[in-house]
Write a structure and sequence with these properties.
9 strands, about 325 residues, Rossmann fold, single chain, five-stranded parallel sheet
Length: about 325
């Protein structure tokens, strides 16, 4: 299949074939990171801007490394050091960046829909690096890529997502991607962290962590976002770890080769024990490595599609 989208804004709107195109492209790019000279000229002459309105280390650095391995020029802009502090809107910021003749803007924003709004206003490609509680598509893609690499398929897998489902853009993107590829998804969390109507996304819901783990081929453990607990309604940290933390004892009751994932950063002793995080079932560092290949694929695909769109418009 030929990728035709100039932007990557979420997985909800992508077809199964489009998701598989990203995954297969990422597979071909992963080999680049094993070379002595870790570069290909695929985006030579292109400029990628990382526009981050939220703090991030893992995602921003991953996009920066991905762009540089494609030979693109990279500019990093954080909101605390930009004209946003002077009252400039996201659209004005985007248009001013585009006026510098950049090719791709990778945006991370605390408001849901920010990436969509920016993409509608610009001819440059826009890649969503996480917007509010909406989606985090490249995180889900790298999670799915890692699962497929470890278990050789996605269709028919049982994947359990545990943690702060209500506030998680990672959970939403994973659910859209996994279900479209034929996986069965279970979400598990305290009742106050399960958003109403999530069953309509095609998932099974449970509050019983041992039951959720018993049938899982993989478990994706989400960060507890205690900073969002404005009403002091979340379980306390030790209480949460006791009832929902992933421990070695819990894993011993699960399937022998269950895969343990986490999008990071990990709160050790809250979401999982260090024994699990660093154990044989964990693929957390492999997720980080695979994030580079997946983001290389995304940057390459949107840049190529946008180039085709511009050529068609000029003819």
């Amino acid at each position: 299949m030929v990728w035709t989208r100039k932007d990557l804004l979420g997985l909800e709107d992508l077809s199964q074939e489009e998701i598989e195109t990203v995954l297969s492209t990422a597979e071909s790019f992963k080999e680049v990171s094993t070379r002595e000279i870790k570069k290909v000229p695929a985006l030579r002459g292109k400029t990628v801007v990382n526009l981050f309105y939220e703090p991030s280390t893992r995602t921003r650095v991953s996009f920066e490394v991905a762009a540089k391995r494609l030979s693109a020029d990279v500019i990093n802009i954080a909101s605390e050091t930009s004209s946003v502090r002077k009252g400039e809107t996201l659209i004005d910021t985007g248009r001013n960046i585009e006026a510098l003749k950049v090719d791709i803007i990778v945006v991370r924003h605390n408001y849901s829909g920010a990436a969509i709004m920016l993409a509608r206003s610009l001819r440059a490609s826009v890649v969503n690096a996480g917007d509010g509680w909406h989606e985090h598509p490249t995180q889900a893609l790298l999670d799915i890529f890692t699962l497929k690499e470890k278990l050789e398929k996605i269709a028919g897998l049982n994947v359990t997502i545990i943690g702060d489902i209500a506030h998680s853009r990672v959970a939403r993107s994973n659910i859209w991607g996994l279900t479209k590829l034929g996986a069965k998804v279970t979400v598990c969390a305290p009742r106050m962290l399960i958003p109403p109507g999530i069953e309509q996304m095609g998932v099974r819901v449970t509050q019983d962590i041992d039951e959720a783990l018993s049938r899982a081929d993989a478990v994706n453990v989400l960060r507890m976002q205690f900073e969002r607990d404005e009403e002091n309604a979340f379980p306390k940290q030790l209480e949460y770890f006791k009832n929902y933390g992933i421990t070695q004892e819990r894993l011993e009751k699960a399937r022998k080769n269950i895969i343990v994932m986490h999008p990071g950063p990990i709160n050790r002793g809250i979401e999982m024990s260090s024994e699990v995080a660093d154990g044989l079932n964990s693929v957390i560092l492999e997720q980080v490595t695979n994030g580079i290949a997946v983001r290389m694929a995304v940057l390459f695909l949107v840049a190529a599609a946008n180039e085709n769109i511009k050529n068609e418009d000029s003819n």
